[in-house]
């Protein structure tokens, strides 16, 4: 950014207790200021690195409480298929808060005085597409940011990896048994469709006839534990919509005894919820 010489004052110096960084750390050294009352480290705009500093008197008057905010993806986010999420974490304790982009920027720019107690971070969050892929991508992102930024406890705080997920309606699909379970935890093989609100369901098309929902699942490679990724968790004891069940037996056979008028025969769950 260019500053006319008559709009800045350079080669100033502070011995401390006068300016602080956005994290509250005291600044000692050379600085320069603009006609708008902004202050930066270094002797002039050409100095590197250049960081914004704030008068202590101003910082003391800034708000110090993180706003309680509700974060909901917009329709534009769903069109894009992902959105950015913003957070704070106490530096000496695994206490996290989700904040809006505006609050994130306000803290970064010193408009909210969080001193040195909090760390800011953000991550990308997948919203649409295949639900198993969404689950895995978001889980990997959380683990990556947790490790890269030394954010111990993040995976405990942010462990609903399909939060805000939205299904994309599709018809006339077929599964070979590697994707879905019935509600009685048996593997499903056969035709299915994806309802915009209810998700994957038995049958190639959605009809007025009663037909069962399906539970997407994946198998952990290490211990072969099956993880059901279900959005409707009314029937199960769950932790953040992740259903942990016993490993599949090697001799498990698909349940293909029930016929559905919504499209072909397939493995329906006996006694499961119908929609």
Outline the structure in words.
The chain is an alpha+beta fold and 275 residues long. The chain has three domains: 5-61, no CATH class; 75-144, no CATH class; 170-266, no CATH class. The chain contains five helices and 16 strands. The protein has helices at residues 56-61, 75-80, 101-108, 131-148, 154-157; strands at residues 8-20, 26-34, 39-41, 52-55, 82-90, 96-99, 118-126, 170-175, 180-181, 190-195, 199-202, 215-219, 226-229, 242-244, 258-259, 265-266. It has a four-stranded antiparallel β-barrel with strand order 1-2-3-4. Strands 9-12-13-14 form a four-stranded antiparallel β-sheet, covered by helices on one side. A hairpin with a 3-residue loop joins strand 10 and strand 11 (199-202). The chain is elongated, with a radius of gyration of 27 Å. The N and C termini lie far apart (60 Å). 24% of the residues are buried.
